[in-house]
Specification:
heterodimer, A: mainly alpha, Cytochrome C Oxidase, Chain A, 67% helix, globular, B: mainly alpha, Four Helix Bundle (Hemerythrin (Met), subunit A), 2 domains, 8 helices, 73% helix
Chain lengths: 533, 294
């Protein structure tokens, strides 16, 4: 500890604090500032995308068309998906990485700080452009977040061109962010912080960054082919010229499947930090966690066509992608087992971050199991494009990815702000969210199995009851996020003073520095604490 | 700050300006393309696009100038150097994946989609739409010949493409000779070999333009010529853009060599551009094999 204190003291002499005014945020090279901007941006997008979700659910409250035009409904499903995936979940994880990775590995900042700023500031422009399409002639993109050709080419509104360029900008941002994280983790670790001592959040992010660099260019490729088909007369996705609309799906899902792991691997990392803290035990099976994460990442490149079982791929393809997909359950099972084993006979307490982490383990596993059902090709013919799919991916994304982000926020807020949270408000937020999320998405399993198709504004009468329940749940979940917002603002503004080690069982470099963490953490590499040596 | 600690730059104006420039580029390009497709002017889009391009160009000069000054000022440690190396390596990997998407599309179309259109396998639907269609590659006869008139002929690999292959492979060697010379601090040799590399790159580009003109005017091989033209132009086109960028970067690096920025110990800027050039070369070999020859 004493070495650390002197380091910090030198640190304050060597650097100034943050700059004043708006310039601090526009020109900053500080990983904490940039992390905060990512997180606030993501929260804003979460609320915008959430309002769109509530519009969808409000329309589906009853059968028949009540509130919105079917065309606008399609724009809402499309924009909700795009904003949540690219605007809410991904930037939140990058924000958490920005804040925590340098502190966890003992680095002075991210490896390439100016590029780090650029990665963030591209996003507001990209999303301004994407959201502006709502006000254009012909409306916003209306072809679903998966933008299948020819819906997104031949039959697309003119705003699709802006959508394509917005995707390009998001891709540039993600690739630069990923390069930064890789360079930071591989190059800026404190002496003695070997790869197999790396906190699991860093490991999962390192692997996620590889996935990002591998697949974001493929997404850029597929939207470029769309652009060529729309404006330059090519026939990539047009069978009339010898191309194939199914080609779009192959290239898209070659990006899209690793993308879903991009949205869950950092979540695994967060949960693997939180559970040991509140179980007051070391993480069970650290090495197997690392290998399981890497296995999931590698397998994610070999399973893309399980999204396309009904499109008419050869039988050998169906079988290969079915079994390859099921294989992913093995490393995922290892992870869930390790989390449970970490808690086994631990001295558990149930503060807000731990509640979200526990809910993650249970509810993500439910989403994992429905994924396994969807992986079975012959029965997927029944499930495909129904609400069962909607239930599945919302279970892995909302009580999965989003809960992990909230768990991470609650867990690290004391380190960021220097204030403890209001536990009562945190617990209120948790229980409202937990109940709301299940009321929203659990009935979707049933209406999906009964045959209700996704992406429609109207439905047959027999689905009415469960849809009404789901809508009530959605509003409970949506409104309870205001508690989260209130909670975060309250924690930033004040509260009980947090100690350096804000949580009793917390281990790692980030808990050795004061709360709030000083503006520049380690200008000299720190000595590792006992627990990491 | 001494070079023993990791250099964390102070605040910088470049990133936010670059974001604005990128936005202008993207918004301008989108507006221009939409206007052109709707047959209406496109002046505003073009203006925004050019403004964005100009701004981005100035920013790149300023931003890299900043980095070069810091590097010359001795602010960068060997650890910083490693960050740059990781950064450039993974950037090139992302470029590899970008081309992989188009190569994958080419393979899928050639091996699966076109034969299926011709009725191979158990897929009857396309046979009903276009019963006359027979699969072949290069695809001279797209199913819907009205919208996509096939090419009359395709580029023979054994004329310009073979020559271009020789040019690019030679240029990789000349660049390596330049690197070898730089490691021995023979700066005049570096200049000569780099100059030769740039000339080879420019000749390659000249031939490529000539080939495109020939394809459009004499062979009927266009973007609208069906899937052969589409894959041909997207692969060779993006490769050509990368050669252009690579040549431009080589010219800048040659300028920096002339200014005496590099010596045998410190020359990552040179190496990064050399890596990029070799990558472009490797992509070309893939193109030559799979687009032209096979």
């Amino acid at each position: 500890m004493s070495t650390l204190d002197t380091t910090l003291e030198q640190d304050t002499h060597a650097h100034h604090g943050p700059a004043k005014g708006l310039g601090r945020w526009l020109f900053t090279t500080n990983h904490k500032d940039i992390g905060s901007m990512y997180l606030w941006f993501s929260l804003l997008m979460f609320f915008i995308g959430g309002c769109m979700a509530l519009m969808i659910r409000a329309e589906l409250f009853q059968p028949g068309l009540q509130l919105v035009e079917p065309g606008f409904f399609n724009q809402m499903t499309t924009m909700h998906g795009l904003i949540m995936v690219f605007g809410a979940v991904m930037p939140a994880f990058v924000g958490l990485a920005n804040w925590m990775v340098p502190m966890m590995i003992g680095a002075p900042d991210m490896a390439l700080p100016r590029m780090n700023n650029w990665s963030f500031w591209i996003l507001p422009f990209a999303f301004a452009m994407l959201i502006s399409t709502l006000f254009m002639d012909g409306g916003a993109p209306n072809f679903g977040w998966t933008f299948y050709a020819p819906l997104s080419t031949t039959y697309a509104p003119p705003s699709v061109t802006y959508f394509i360029f917005a995707i390009h900008m998001m891709g540039i941002s993600s690739i630069m962010g990923a390069i930064n994280i890789i360079a930071t983790i591989l190059n800026l670790r404190a002496p003695g912080m070997t790869m197999m001592k790396l906190p699991l959040f860093c490991w999962t992010w390192l692997i996620t960054a590889f996935l990002l660099i591998a697949v974001m260019p493929v997404l850029a490729g597929v939207v470029t082919m769309m652009l060529m088909d729309i404006h330059f007369g090519t026939s990539f996705f047009d069978a009339g010229g010898g191309g194939d609309p199914v080609l779009f799906q192959h290239v898209f899902w070659f990006f899209g499947h690793p993308e879903v792991y991009i949205m869950i691997l950092p979540a695994f990392g967060i949960i693997s930090q939180i559970i040991p803290t509140f179980a007051r035990k070391r993480l069970f099976g650290y090495a197997s966690m690392v290998y399981a994460t890497a296995s999931i990442a590698i397998l994610s490149f070999l399973v893309w066509a399980h999204h396309m079982f009904t499109v008419g791929i050869p039988l050998a393809g169906e079988l290969f992608f079915m079994f390859a997909t099921m294989l992913i359950a093995v490393p995922t099972g290892v992870k869930v087992f390790n989390w449970v084993a970490t808690m086994f006979r631990g001295s558990m307490t149930f503060e807000t971050p731990m509640l979200f982490a526990l809910a993650f383990v249970v509810l993500f596993t439910i989403g994992g199991f429905s994924g396994l059902m969807l992986a079975i090709a012959p029965v997927d013919f029944q499930y495909h494009d129904t609400y069962f799919v909607v239930a599945h991916f919302h279970y892995v994304l909302v009580p999965g990815a989003v809960f992990s982000i909230m768990a991470g926020a609650y867990y690290w807020l004391p380190k960021w702000t220097g204030h403890m949270l209001d536990e009562r408000m945190g617990k209120l937020h948790f229980w409202l969210s937990f109940i709301g999320v299940n009321i929203t998405f659990f009935p979707m399993h049933f209406i999906g199995l009964a045959g209700m198709p996704r992406r429609i504004p109207d439905y047959a009468l027999q689905f009415a009851d469960f849809n009404m329940v789901a809508t009530v749940g959605a509003f409970i979940f949506g409104l309870s996020q205001l508690v989260f917002l209130w909670n975060v603002i309250a924690c930033v503004r004040g509260g009980r003073k947090a100690e350096a080690r804000a949580w009793e069982g917390a281990e790692g470099l980030e808990w050795e520095v004061p709360s709030p963490a000083p503006y520049h953490t380690f200008s000299e590499p720190p000595k590792l604490p006992e627990s990491l040596r | 700050m001494s070079s023993s600690t990791y250099y964390v730059p102070e605040q910088s104006r470049w990133p936010i300006l670059a974001s604005i420039a990128l936005f202008l580029l993207a918004f301008g390009a989108g507006t221009l393309m939409n206007a052109l497709s709707a047959d209406g002017g496109g002046g505003l889009g073009l203006a925004l696009l050019l403004a964005g391009a100009l701004m981005m160009g100035l920013i790149l000069v300023g931003w890299f100038g900043n980095v070069i000054r810091e590097s010359r000022g001795g602010l960068y440690s060997s650890q910083m150097d490693r960050s740059f190396r990781w950064g450039m390596s993974w950037f090139i990997f992302s470029e590899v994946m970008f081309f992989a998407a188009f190569f994958g599309a080419l393979f899928y179309v050639r091996v699966l989609a076109v034969p299926w259109l011709g009725g191979e396998g158990d897929k009857g639907v396309s046979q009903m739409l276009w019963p006359e269609f027979t699969a072949q590659w290069p695809l001279f006869n797209p199913p819907d010949a009205e919208r996509f008139p096939g090419p009359d002929a395709v580029i023979s690999p054994w004329h310009i493409p073979l020559l271009n292959t020789c040019l690019l492979i030679t240029s990789s060697f000349t660049l390596t000779f330049a690197h070898k010379a730089l490691l021995k601090d023979e700066l005049m040799q570096v200049r000569r070999w780099m100059f030769l590399t740039i000339v080879l790159g420019l000749i390659f580009l000249g031939f490529q333009i000539y080939e495109y003109v020939e394809a459009y005017h004499d062979l009927g091989l266009t973007l609208e010529a069906g899937i052969y033209g589409a894959t041909f132009f997207i692969l060779t086109g993006f490769h050509g853009l990368h050669v252009t960028l690579g040549t431009l970067m080589l010219i800048i690096i040659l300028g920096r060599v002339v200014l005496g920025h590099f010596d045998s110990r410190q020359h990552f800027g040179f190496e990064a551009v050399a890596w990029y050039w070799h990558f472009v070369d490797v992509v070309w070999i893939g193109l030559f094999l799979f687009v032209y020859v096979l």
